[in-house]
């Protein structure tokens, strides 16, 4: 199989694109367009500044920034200097940020000026964090280097000899749902190879397609599919720092975005758009959903309203992250995450690492050049995450005879009621079919008799009413008795992380508080 990514680092591939398309917009925002030539020059200056601080190959540099042109310039510049980018989740509290930067051994930090107070709160807890730059004119400390001064750094940019297979491009920390966050070590090969896989799967048009990137760029999905993919393949992207449905629709229309990347909760909220805002959405060529299971009912409603197809895909951070997607323009199967992208292999394996018969539930496992080098400083966690070369995603799923994968649920989210497996996603799909339900999530709650029981948390559509009895009665018509939620909690909004994904651990905590055990 051809391997066009072989031997390439991110800086090399970006330099090739900048040489081929110097005057093509790389980034477009309300501040105007940044061409490939300009972004190349800006990231060179960042690299020169990083090198001037004595940082280089293998050094970790934190990037604590909103979606913006500066994020891309800093990301590329750190890598041009040979460094490893450590993106920081903007929703973490200072103690959590301190843990990540200290665990990574970060020696440098580039932060957006609005996060100055947080930086002050954690900087003393990160040993060796001696080189700090502020994107903006209001640094937290006078000796933090201003962004304008970074971009004015003189001298030739460094050109370290990097090994695409060994040198880390990014160290991305997982959300830590099962304990302390783990740093996924992504090499240049991992990320560049994944952009080539995405290029074949999504069929983006160089010089024409423009991605609307509102998913946070510290997140693997947005970093690869919404930033690196367009920048390494001659396209452009529109960074939007905050999800607001009207603002997104306005940005799509104003900047002529053709492809939107989102998570299911975003599509659910965008259904409220009307008038000119709705027209903005209709201008898209297509949309992609990932990060969480897309309820088929939300997909159906979105497509009926806007005439824009949603192609669902998936992939964990540890896989750079894209592993599969429904084929653009090909046969799409709602309720599935599609086919493995070119260059990536996927299998269903049981607990012993064996393939069960087609259609049976097992763990989705992945092999390919996109799979991480391991978890930073956690050899035991790394070993436990693999069956040989196959990375264990932690997702339960199936594959049909045509190779389309379906995610049943996360292994850790499965509920066992009287010894029978209940998969929350299947219950949630039914809940989304109720006309009053806007959002839904199902979690397990310990029970002295049944082992566990399903508990549903839902929010209602504006102007709609429903109570627990009505919701349970609806479920009884569509589910087995053991799958019907024993409790239904109606709340204004479901908790979400920075990527817009519903956070079930917060719902479990809420349940513990209600039961008086937290």
Structure description:
The protein has 518 residues and is α/β, with parallel strands linked by helices. Among the domains are: 10-22 and 33-162, Rossmann fold; 414-514, 2-Layer Sandwich (GMP Synthetase, Chain A, domain 3), CATH 3.30.300. 31% of the residues lie in helices and 25% in strands. It has 16 helices and 27 strands. The chain has a seven-stranded mixed beta sheet with strand order 11-10-12-13-14-15-16, with helices on both faces. A five-stranded parallel beta sheet has the order 4-3-5-6-7. Strands 17, 18, 20, 21 and 22 form a five-stranded antiparallel beta sheet that branches. Helix 1 packs antiparallel against helix 2 (36-52) and helix 2 crosses helix 3. The mean pLDDT is 95.
CATH class of the domain at 10-22 and 33-162: Alpha Beta
How many individual helices?
16
Strand content: 15-25%
CATH names the topology of the domain at 10-22 and 33-162 as: Rossmann fold
**Given the C-alpha coordinates, what overall shape results?**
globular
Strand order, main sheet: write it out: 11-10-12-13-14-15-16
Largest sheet: 7 strands, mixed
Number of strands: 27
- Mean pLDDT across every amino acid position: 95
* Second rung of CATH, namely the architecture of the domain at 10-22 and 33-162: 3-Layer(aba) Sandwich
Unreliable stretches (pLDDT < 50, length at least 5) are none
Distance between the termini: 54 Å
Radius of gyration: 23 Å
**Percent of residues in helices:** 25-40%
Structural class: alpha/beta
